[in-house]
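TA notes, week 10

Several of you asked for a full example with nothing omitted. So below is the full record: structure tokens for the whole chain, then the designed sequence directly under it. When grading your own attempts, check the secondary structure regions first.
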């Protein structure tokens, strides 16, 4: 007995999907990536603020005054 499923064209091997199932899946994916992008953007903002704060600390360090009164 030969396997005839491999001899069929690709189009005949597709599985019909309920449109509501596809919409539900796409909606869940969109929400996942939206949340992921928001989390990543928040991380970028936090890191940027940390870098800016470190840069400001370096530029505003008080200069050591020479208190030698000789």
């Amino acid at each position: 007995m030969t396997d005839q499923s491999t001899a069929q064209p690709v189009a005949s091997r597709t599985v019909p999907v309920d449109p509501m199932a596809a919409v539900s899946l796409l909606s869940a994916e969109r929400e996942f990536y939206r949340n992921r992008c928001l989390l990543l953007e928040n991380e970028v903002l936090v890191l940027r603020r940390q870098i800016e704060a470190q840069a400001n600390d370096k530029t505003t360090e008080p200069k050591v005054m020479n208190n030698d009164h000789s």
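The radius of gyration is 31 Å. Use that as a sanity check on your answer.
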